Amino acid sequence: GDSVTQMEGPVTLSEEAFLTINCTYTATGYPSLFWYVQYPGEGLQLLLKATKADDKGSNKGFEATYRKETTSFHLEKGSVQVSDSAVYFCAFLTQGGSEKLVFGKGTKLTVNP
Amino acid sequence: DTEVTQTPKHLVMGMTNKKSLKCEQHMGHRAMYWYKQKAKKPPELMFVYSYEKLSINESVPSRFSPECPNSSLLNLHLHALQPEDSALYLCASSQDGRTGEQYFGPGTRLTVT
Questions:
Q1: What is the mean pLDDT of residues B31-36?
Q2: Among residues 51-70 of chain B, which lie with CB inside 8 Å of chain A?
Q3: What is residue A98's predicted lDDT score, i.e. its pLDDT?
């Protein structure tokens, strides 16, 4: 069935470190892919998206590339800041009929100064 | 205005109470959602309204009753809840439910005693 697998957290980094959060998905066809972020005490915010193979989504220094061959959508940032501390969710939109987001379990990132 | 508002922010209710959660958006979105989020978990979809009609009910117990009075408002009526229903309830909206780009409110933190 439809599912998203994210790397287990929590992830703790120092400021200016490189970030990678792995995400792979199992879905029918080639769905649109998303990264959502949830800051403490808030709802989720769309961080970036990609709608077809080889698309690169980017926002606020974060990037992710839609890899059809490996069904992956890994999140990267070259230099993290303390303000990036949050929970990151990888997700895809199911296709056909009832369209809904399927989320991964989330990865908590803590960035220390 | 890209904001989804939710009231109340916090709610404590007994198992015999009746209460309602409210959600509002003024982005002209035609799809609205209710999610339930337990601590350290991803959001779980409960209901979807598309063009003011209920389009998805994820087998939610009848003690949760959604209502969409108009295209800007979404309510969740609560009755005879159980302690395990304690969670963060998130409302979201999207243009038409087909893009996966959802705007989330900050949530209502519900505690059932």
A1: 97
A2: 55-56
A3: 66
User: How wide is the angle at C-alpha A21 spanned by C-alphas A56 and B91, nearest 5°?
Assistant: 80
Q: Which DSSP symbol is given to B50?
A: E
pLDDT for res A50: 97
Which residues are paired to B70 by β-bridges?
Answer: B73
Mean pLDDT of B40-59: 94
In one letter, which amino acid is B53? Answer: K
Cis status, amide bond into B61, omega within 30 of 0: no
Residues of B in contact with A89 (CB under 8 A): 42
Higher pLDDT, A30 or B2: A30
Residue carrying the six token digits 């066809």: A29
Q: Does B108 touch chain A (CB under 8 A)?
A: no
Please give the helix or strand (H or E) that residue B55 lies within, else none: strand B53-57
